[in-house]
Design brief:
It is an enzyme of class 1 (oxidoreductase). Its EC number is 1.-.-.-. This protein has 14 helices and 21 strands. It is an alpha/beta fold. The protein has an 8-stranded mixed beta sheet.
Amino acid sequence: MPSPRSVPVIGDETLPEKVDVVVIGGGIIGCSTALELAERGLKVAVCEKGNIGREQSGQNWGWVRIGRRDSREVPLMAEALRLWPELEKRTGHATGYNRCGIVFSCTSDAEYARYEAWLENLKGLDVDSRMISAGEYKKLFPGNTLDVKGGHYTPDDGCAEPQLATAAIAEGARAKGCYILTECAVRGLETTAGQVSAVVTERGTIACQAIVLAGGAWSSLFLGSLGVRLPQLRVLNSVLRTEPLEGGPDTTLWTWDFAARKRKDGGYTIASGQANLVDVVPKSFSYFIDYLPTLKHEWRALSLRFSSRFFEEARIPNKWALNEESPFEYHRSLDPVPSRKILDRAFEAACRTMPVFRKTKVAQRWGGYIDTVPDAVPVISPIEKIPGLFVATGFSGHGFGIGPAAGRLMANLVTGEKPLVDPHNFRLSRFSDGTKTVVECGF
């Protein structure tokens, strides 16, 4: 079953001859970057090979959370929490944002202690996040049958609607002069005296001074064609939504077996709290050493499988001429088949733990490809080898919530402004300069 339909964004017909910055990718990261740059008065064009917010930006859970974040992402996510409430006013369009609070369940003393220790990451930040007792947990989720020691509760966390938010940001950028070009794949770039000078799209060439690659799961392929190595693989996450339900929890909940959040339409988005599928593909072998720490740390959450995906990706070329069709023109949108087994287990667990869910039915199931990097921390960085080229990718399932702040940080880097936060942990060179890969998420 295909993923939920995002609000359609009609692309501009006219291809500009010249802009200041071209953003490659019309997901939430690319559109947030474009909005920030356009608000600074720069001429910007977003080039999207398919449609705005059509891949993971429109297929994710919709969580906007700082809780349980990798410590390296916390300062940037704290900024995102401040930006989300302003987005509807900034863009003039609905995002569905709701500061509903998120609770992570703790079923053992050891788990409770790990979350409690994690709270040290929020010291000095104005964020309401705390541990709650089993009694407080039961008050938030009446009828919950899960045997808990308590929970990690962040009232400042919330959710937004993936099918609304990216479109809203794109339209907000367009209102400030940004070109939104859909079905406009970028085949490559041109340089002058070693500096970025243009992008070559399927519709023609656009001269520019800087390029931001925000291509999600396609970023590694694009960079590889330029001789730049980015270890990146795809993880399949499966999601479902229910029909509208009265009497369900308003606060978003995570457990090992399921995660659930209330949607704007009154239904719930539900997924497994941990289970994901990883298709073994040719690049799995190329990046095997890079991902060893991830496999050791996340073995409970990742299930490897051999599928037709191996042969599909094996047929994708690594290089192509700029006057020929690129792989991006033959693969407009990633819309994978979800795992019914994983979703059935998650929905059964939700009904078992929260009996109120027995009153509703599954309305839709879908899958989405998460773009991952070995340490699950995003890359928000200039490409030193190609002056004028920047990349924002590898958000590893954390990109939707952090998107507005990631866009602001990228705009800072492009314009040479003082960065919103220290970008050191997000540099691409960490995968080649001997930095040890540390995986924090999924504790």
